[in-house]
C-alpha cells in the first residue's frame, strides 16, 4: 500500500526559449524529510521553492520561499 503524501513542494520551472514566463510545478512527498531533501536539490539548482502540508494534514504548515532556509536548518532555542 502506498504511503499517503502529506507534504508538497512547489518550485519554479526554468524558462525555455519558447516560454518567457516562469511556470511552477508541484511534487508531493510522504514525509517531511523527503520534502526537505527535494527542496535542497531545487535550491542547489537556483530555483525558488516553497513547501507545506497537504490538506487535511494537521497541524497545517506553510513554508514560504522566504522561510525555506530556516525550515531546512532550524535554530534550537539553546543555540541563540
Which structural class best describes the helix and strand composition? alpha+beta
Task: Report on the biggest sheet.
Answer: 4 strands, antiparallel
Mean pLDDT over the residues: 85
- The coarse silhouette is globular
Helix count?
A: 2
Order of adjacent strands in the largest pleated sheet? 2-1-3-4
Query: What fraction of residues sit in β-strands?
Result: 25-35%
Order of helices and strands: EEHEEH
Which value, in Å, is the CA radius of gyration? 14 Å
Query: Helical proportion?
Result: 10-25%
Any low-confidence stretches, pLDDT <50, length ≥5? none
Number of E-type strands: 4
- Cα separation of the termini: 43 Å
Explain this structure to me?
By secondary structure, this protein is an alpha+beta fold. The chain is 22% helix and 26% strand. A hairpin with an 8-residue loop joins strand 3 and strand 4. The longest helix is centred in the middle third of the chain and has 13 residues. It is globular, with a radius of gyration of 14 Å. The termini are far apart. The model has no long low-confidence stretch (mean pLDDT 85).
Summary, kept brief:
By secondary structure, the protein is α+β, with helices and mostly antiparallel strands. The protein has two helices and four strands, in the order ββαββα.
Topology of helices and strands:
Layout: E1 7-13, E2 23-29, H1 32-44, E3 49-53, E4 62-63, H2 68-72
Antiparallel strand pairs: 1-2, 1-3, 3-4
Key terms for this structure?
80 residues; single chain; alpha+beta; four-stranded antiparallel β-sheet; 4 strands
Amino acid at each position: 500500500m502506498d504511503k499517503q503524501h502529506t507534504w508538497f513542494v512547489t518550485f519554479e520551472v526554468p524558462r525555455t526559449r519558447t516560454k518567457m514566463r516562469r511556470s511552477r510545478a508541484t511534487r508531493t512527498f510522504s514525509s517531511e524529510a523527503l520534502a526537505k531533501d527535494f527542496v535542497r536539490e531545487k535550491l542547489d539548482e537556483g530555483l525558488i521553492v516553497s513547501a507545506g502540508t497537504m490538506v487535511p494534514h494537521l497541524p497545517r504548515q506553510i513554508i514560504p520561499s522566504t522561510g525555506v532556509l530556516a525550515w531546512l536548518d532550524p535554530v534550537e532555542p539553546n543555540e541563540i
